[in-house]
Amino acid sequence: MIMKLHRKKQTFAIVVALFVGLISCQSTLESSTKLPGSSQSTEVALPGKGVKIRPASGGTAGGHFVSEVLRIGLENLGYEVEELKQLNTTTIFLALGNDEIDVAPTLEKLFANFFEKAGGEKKLEILGMLVSSDILQGYSIDKKTAEQYKITNLVQLKDPKIAKLFDSDGDGKANLTGCNPGLSCELIIDHHLKVYGLEDTVKQDKGEFEVLQADIITRYKQEKPVLYYSRNLDWLTFVLQNGRDVVWLEVPFTSLPGEKGKEVTEKDTTVGGKNLGFAVDRGRFVASRQFLEANPAARRWFELVRVPLEDYITQEKLANEGQNRSKDIRRNAEVWVKNHQALVDGWLEEARIAGKASK
Predict the structure, then answer these.
(1) Rounded CA separation 104/96 (Å)
(2) Alpha-carbon separation of residue 50 from 85, 142, 253, 271, 341 (angstroms)
(3) What is the DSSP string of 45-111?
(4) Contacts of 233 (CB under 8 A, 6+ apart)
């Protein structure tokens, strides 16, 4: 009888040992599993677990690229990240104001009026720096024409003879290549043509930015004069470089539309002694204040994520060369994260700490 009890105790001990060993093995396997885009293991805190986030981005490939970097980090923090919504600027701010999305890239000053109409600081917050350099915007013409006719200021296009140099459709007016209808830059250009007295001699060509820019390059290669709005975020700056191929034009004075436009001074629009007419801007993120308050880890992540301006423009260039599908841009974002893994891991750790501190 004593022998039987002893054997039963031995059997029970073996079963318990096997069970503990199995649990230990499973735990070891789980802790060694890496999250995509991170060198960290799943044993780290996931402050976003169980929380859904709805990101959006505008139509530019660079903005899409940074938004994918943002998504990769959010996934590593445990958030349930929806597919990126591609929306125009007007729709982005409407969606933010109506609580249909949570975060999107933005230009702080260019889109200030949209921000206010969507609820302003009561509903939204602008934070972080999605690119590492200031964003410049203004009017450019080819250097050859500028030097030949001594053109330095946009207001010189009041002269019909000067304006006709840039007439590409034969109506006698200069064709100024502008922006997509509905964007802030389109509204600002129309405003400038009015306040500078240029409506009789200059008109803005509106349409898809990429198509318009391709036409600029074609005309330049044909050695025809070009006049266009541009910003240093665009892939066009790879092809037509300021100072080498084209030059910025000054404007006679600072004037921007809307209530927020009244706050912008000549100092805000002047670069290197030239008044470019557009405020020197910053690429940032705009997010729902309610979401940020409930998710300090995500807030800290938004504050930290940024890419060099050169990498942003490179993505614009790659998109122009054919890598413009969502899967292409996502792949490029994953490569960027891998190439900057230590930096990204540092950002993720700071975000996790912020998440822990709130509990």
Answers:
(1) 9
(2) 21, 54, 52, 47, 25
(3) --TTTT-EE-BEE-S-HHHHHHHHHHHHHHHHTT-EEPPPEE--HHHHHHHHHTTS-SEEEEETTTT
(4) 60, 62, 131, 135, 283, 309, 312, 313, 316
Q: Is the dihedral of CA 339, 343, 346, 352 positive or negative?
A: negative
pLDDT in tens, 9-26: 444 444 434 344 434 434
Enclosing H/E stretch for 143: helix 143-149
3-state DSSP assignment of residue 6: helix
- Coil, strand or helix: which one is 252? coil
pLDDT tens, 177-231? Answer: 999 887 889 999 999 999 999 999 999 999 888 788 889 999 999 999 999 999 9
Q: From residue 188, how far is each of 12, 22, 100, 258 by CA, in Å?
A: 80, 67, 28, 10
Those residues with Cβ within 8 angstroms of residue 46's Cβ, 6 or more apart along the chain or in another chain: 77, 78
Could you tell me the CA-to-CA distances from 100 to 93, 148, 286, 317 in Å, in that order? Answer: 10, 52, 13, 31
Distance CA 131, CA 233 (A): 9
